[in-house]
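Reply to dn_fold:

You asked what the input looked like. This is it:
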Amino acid sequence: MTNFWRFLFSLLVVFPLTFATQFLPASPTLIAQNIASDAFNLGVVQMQQGNYEEAIVYFNQAIQQQEKIVAAYSDRCLAYLYLQDYHQAIADCTQAINSAPHHVEAYLNRGLAHYRQGNYTSAIDDDDQAIAHKPHDFRAYYNRGVAHNALGDHISAITDFNLALTQIPQLPYVFLADIYNDRGLAHFQLHNLAAAIHDFDLAIRFNANDYRAYFNLGCVCGRNGDNTGAVSNFSEVIRLDPSNAQAYLNRGIARYNLGYHQRAIADLNKASEYFEHQNQKVAYEKTIDLLKRWQQQIQLAVQVA
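and this is what came back:
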């Protein structure tokens, strides 16, 4: 049996916009306050529309007019996060924290920047600070759990995900799906397969369009030798995310194990096409190598027959 399963770890971390201007005690002119407030609010609008570079321009204006607007630093950090400029994001959040040590959003955003850089311990430190200042904020527990998962401390991750689930009784369903999906991954790493399947099923119940949960279920099925279940789940991934190369690859492997060789080859051809288009060179080369081995095996079987 060919094994090429890969788990898709969720990296979606909730980070909020700051919707109200937060001034530190100062004595600027009223005109400067109004200009800063208008620029900040325009920056928030641009953030909501996904125009992150434009948002930064407005936040710059707000900071220039009144540099102690903590929210402007915090939300500019968020814009830099979206643009993957993590160094600048950390600098902005640090500025916000230095000015307002209790600013929870800045700790959350800086923690995410550290996480994206692979500095998981620093991310956990920031999440700890967020929890210290706001003990009932589910986002900090969830983010800390994701960082613990990345460090391989899956027991601590499960504890944090459980805390996140208990902090707010009326969590939006999409957040619940994320938490269950990540808790399922932690359970899988601890070889608690029944618990992992249960969590992935819950993730799908709360968000039927979450392709990640279907992907992870497919991987668990493959690991358990349930190739039919794997095909079914990876097919759902492809329905929801048609260019998911890894789903085509894994479905192809499951189909090959079931003896559906031509369908398997068709899936791997699709996978190689998407891997190449997405510039995933290593995955592309491995997929091509696997295709060649299969074709050789099929030809040999025909000759023997």
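DSSP finds 15 helices and no strands in the chain.
Hope that clears it up.
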